[in-house]
Amino acid sequence: xxxxxxxxxxxxYGHDGSNVRLFFAPGRVNLxxxxxxxxxxxxxPCSLSIGTYMAVKRRTxxxxxxxxxxxxxxxxxxxxxxxxxxxxxxxxxxYPKGVIKEFVNLGKTSxxxxxxxxxxxxxxxxxxSSSASVELVTAVxxxxxxxxxxxxxxxxxxxxRAENDFIGVSCGIMDQFAIGMGRENKAILLDCNTLDxxxxxxxxxxxxxxxxxxxxxxxxxxxxxNERRSECDEALASIQKKKDVAFLCxxxxxxxxxxxxxxxxxxxxxRAKHAVAENERTKKAAELLGEGDLLGFGQLMNASHVSLxxxxxxxxxxxxxxxxxxWKEESVIGARMTGAGFGGCTVNLIHKEGLNETIERIGSDxxxxxxxxxxxxxxxxxxxxxxxxxxxxxxx
Length: 396
Ligand code: GLA
Hints:
By secondary structure, the protein is α+β, with helices and mostly antiparallel strands. The protein contains eleven helices and 13 strands.
């Protein structure tokens, strides 16, 4: 990987490899706890070994040049540190640009730009957070090269704010947190209200964690995402007339039953029902995983999918077909959509015995129903965002 990036730096900018620094940020998969990070709930994601690499060499002027090996047709995108504004034509580079802008908003400025090459091996639009991965790799890089010394949690918040304010997607904090704070072979149980968190070892025994990509791009996901957020806000505002709560996920299911009639819009009521139940499922699921009760964990994954499909309405034909194909298999003990939904990936717990055959059957059942070919990856849970190499002058 290092050589590939150094070669690309040479090709794009003529660099000889001296003083080039390399950074990495993973993608993430959420095991359970979907669409509740922005409702003050618990989520249970983990960082993946796939992610985004960034090679950087500082410049003496204030120009920033960015090239992505994933978007070769876009060529090199250039901007100045004096002009950190969203530009449609800057396309993917708005993500790193937004991150640098958020540093400036915190008073963390620099007048020295850089040349950079990005390369990501997360499938784009698959709901494995390729955008948050780009945000965090940029945040860690900018923090390191300028010696700003911000803690990782601050960079996580910078990434989220870049997405909210610069890109215009009102995402919660789960993706950036999982990517910044991830640990090898650990899931993170995160309270999105307080940002208290705990690592849980992922011990799956005879089972494998399999990510399946519907290969249906997430299309209209961003506008639907913002729509779900406002439906939850509406439900919360209605409940607050009856009960003093700060977030939907402050309610237990029993409390929700008592106050739900305050929500006159039936759609908003359904959305709130999902949020409350999903939060309870997530806490329980983390507990069961800790006790080694994988069957119980898998059942909660299944219930999460049903709730996202029926009450939250963020699944879709393809995600449902892929989950249902998995549910038909005896060796699958849990399957659900993961991430924002409307396309992207499912996450599955599958017995290792006959794993390839199981995957093949799921794939062909899915293809029969949708005409699409799914892709499957055995998830490897790797570390969070970091600098991976520092190639100093004279070393090459
Ligand atoms: C996207 C958002 C996250 C979270 C998930 C759904 O990935 O970026 O903040 O809301 O959707 O759980």
